[in-house]
Design brief:
alpha/beta; 3 domains; six-stranded parallel beta sheet; 9 helices
Amino acid sequence: MKEIRSIIQLYDQLKNGVDKLALATVVRIEESSYRRVGARMLVSSSGQWTGGISGGCLEGDALRRAQKAIFDNKPSTVTYDTMDDDANQIGVGLGCNGIIEVLFTPIDTLSNNNSIEQLRQIVEKNDSAILLQLINSSNKQDPIGQTQLFDSLTQAIYFDLETNALTEEINKVRIKRRPQIVEVSNVQGIKRTILIEYLRPETRLVVIGDNYDVRVLLKIASELGWDIHWVGRKKKMTKSSVSLVKKIYEYEEIDQVPKDEFTAVVLMTHDYEWDKRILPKLMGARVVYLGMLGPKKRWIKLSEDLGIARDKTPDKFHTPVGLDIGAETPEEITISILSEIIATMRQREGRALRERKGTIHDRIQS
């Protein structure tokens, strides 16, 4: 979501000026790729850009392709095939050994429902969303690149396809939280290829504690663009750290902190009595991750004092908090904690990539 915000920010800066804009979107990959389907890059006719579609190796060529789409006022699709690592293909040796398909779409800044404005709606709503995008069609008149938010309440029509024809595929994407490419035909026999994308809201991080190590966690989490809420003694909070968070609370206000299925909570008060008071309020909360700082023996004593059966704690509860990377300093411990949160959010185990069978990223279904 941080990248989408940066795209909206640049769009707002340029939309009323002389620059014209195009959006580059990764719509298909095979084998290896640094970025995933849905990675975006906004480009202006003057050469300004933000976002990214690769690790830096495609952006130069993508900028030129996007500018061409702007001047032609026509969407285009480019396939970067690096399976043979051909340095002559786009002038650089990528070394990714994959196929990346990128759609370049001019943006009509006069439209209140263009692709960027739809992304704005998603950001402002701050909830999960399904975005449909036409990436190919047998009808040459179809507006390739057009997007539409799927609204299950209105059951809006996507082109001349009733959305109930896509309901099964949309539900799969919603459950698995991974994109899917589907090919559908209408009654006239027009075949359309549609990318169904699941967009997550910003991760909400609730940090409970006010010691110096908390400030390190706030700083690094803010770089991830997360929605941060800080609980602690306000008199101990520094201005520089408060500037990184959305809202602050006293310990007694813990019940006022918003929580949902995209919320991670880290309890790091370094105070046994406060942990004892706060933890029961969080065990039953609707969050995806709950971590508590401290060694196992501390948790054993705390669970006994609270009458909590340790073998029946929810899967979301992690203590000692963080991945086992041998972290020692506050900065390293922060990386350990945030890594575990990301792994939990992505439903991964957090082990070394070299131990993973198959590709780094899950294959997109089509």
